Amino acid sequence: MPKMAAAVREDELERKSVKEKARLRLREFDVGDKFSRLPLAKASVLLPLLVREGRLHLLLTVRAMQLRRSPGEVCFPGGKSEAIDKDEIDTALREAKEEVGLQPEKVEVICRLVPGIDKMNHLVTPVVGFIEDTFQAIPNPDEVSDVFVVPLEYFIKPLNYKTLPFKTSSGYSSWVHCFIYDDHERKTSFKIWGLTAHFAVFLALVIFGKRPTYEVDYDLDNLIASSENNFMNLYASLHKRKKSNL
Fold first, then answer.
1. b/e burial code for range 88-109 (CB count within 10 A of at least 16 → b)
2. Rounded to whole angstroms, what are the CA distances from 200 to 47, 49, 55?
3. With b meaning 16 or more CB within 10 Å and e meaning fewer, what string describes 181-219?
4. Helix (H) or strand (E) holding 180
5. Model confidence over 180-219: pLDDT tens digits?
6. Does the pLDDT at position 1 exceed 80?
7. What is the DSSP pairing of strand 108-112 with strand 78-80?
8. pLDDT number for residue 8
9. CA 85 – CA 63 distance, rounded (Å)
């Protein structure tokens, strides 16, 4: 076999192996529709994974400046559930198609992870899927101003990390992860924080199973149970606040 063909074949095998390891880990954490019946408005985001130069990367977007909510913020493709959506996976795929031109059949959906609750009290389900590293985004200018990728490992060993104080919707003070990622090729820095960072961190913890270089609010020896407990505590605090407002 010529050297060039051998190198291509080796790359292909490496990519398959990286994907397969990630798939196996992610399937252990698949929550399916376990939280789908909670009485909150629904939203979903797609966490698109791709393999580039033998490493997992995550695709993210920057919200258009003319949007009313969170203009210019980094987020995953996603949005609110609509009547035509069968489930959270449908919502995530439909939104990704609308926002960045990603065709649903080009996504290998792996799992749904523990949801989060956003500022508007939507139940936000992260849907994880593999996309091809050759995917060329076509951003919808009404919704997205930029699309970029970050090595997933950056969320375990960041070069620029801090925590930001944050008041939850139920009124208590907390903190959130905040990463600054410098894209040297494009000479641009991106600030990744809030629920987007929360999902990226959890995804990295699930796949790599390593302790990050910063503090996280999980029992890393029992990640499944502690992530679900954290979520249910957040949900309970929201419920408590709703009752006290009646």
1. bbbbbbbbbbebbbbeeebbee
2. 8, 11, 15
3. beeeeeeeebbbbbbbbbbbbbbbbbbbeeebeeeeebe
4. strand 173-183
5. 999 988 899 999 999 999 999 999 999 999 999 999 999 9
6. no
7. unpaired
8. 63
9. 23
What 3-state DSSP class applies to 145? Answer: strand
Instruction: Write down the residue that tokens 């605090």 correspond to.
Output: 237
Which band of pLDDT confidence, cut at 50, 70 and 90, is reported for residue 240? low
Distance, in Å, from the CA atom of 124 to the CA atom of 134, rounded to the nearest integer, reads 28
**CB 160: neighbour CB atoms within 10 A?**
12
**pTM beyond cutoff 0.70:** yes
Contact (Cβ atoms closer than 8 angstroms) between residue 48 and residue 54: no
Chain centroid offset of residue 154 CA: 13
* % of the chain with per-residue pLDDT over 70: 91
Beta pairing, strands 116-117 & 123-130:
antiparallel
Place of tokens 């003070």: 173
